[in-house]
Amino acid sequence: MENTFKKIMSEETIEQTETNEQELSPEEVEIQDKARSATNTGAILGIAGTAVIGLSRGVKTSAVVSQLTSVGALVGGKAITGGILLGALPFATAGAFGGLTYLWYKNKKNKAQKVELEAEPNPA
Predict the structure, then answer these.
(1) Band of residue 35 on the pLDDT scale cut at 50, 70, 90
(2) What is the mean pLDDT of residues 17-38?
(3) Neighbours of 94 (CB within 10 A)
(4) Which residues contact 75 (CB under 8 A, 6 or more apart)?
(5) Dihedral in degrees, nearest 10, Cα atoms 90, 74, 53, 103
(6) Contact 8, 17 (CB under 8 A)
């Protein structure tokens, strides 16, 4: 997967990313790696969810359009709105999974550092 990623990105972007990662602490790099994995998982789940929702009434054109209309009606729209919502679902789940995973691990790290600071004896 890493080779595919590097083929897609330009050399300049790769060098900038590697430079940024060298400046980060090992804990931060680990947290970002976990967040990237969660983002990938969220994207896969979003694509699967889109397929399930879009095709839950069948694969005939009328069934798909009917389902898109139902999804669009949730926000007061029509079939086109439903298509846009289903198209955005993988991006939303990827962002939510990745962002929330990053925040969770970052908060966990900050709490651990705070406990360590409180446990240190205070020189008087």
Answers:
(1) very high
(2) 81
(3) 20
(4) 81, 85
(5) 30
(6) no
Residue with tokens 């590697």: 18
Q: How confident is the model at residue 3 (pLDDT cuts 50, 70, 90)?
A: low
Measured distance CA(47)–CA(81) in Å, rounded = 17
Q: Which two tokens stand for residue 104?
A: 């969770």
Query: 123 — alpha (psi -120 to 50), left (phi > 0) or beta?
Result: beta
State pTM to two decimals.
0.67
109 Cβ neighbours under 8 A, 6+ residues apart: 27, 31
Question: By C-alpha distance, which of 77, 4, 5, 94 is closest to 41?
Answer: 94
**Cβ atoms of 68 and 83 closer than 8 Å:** yes
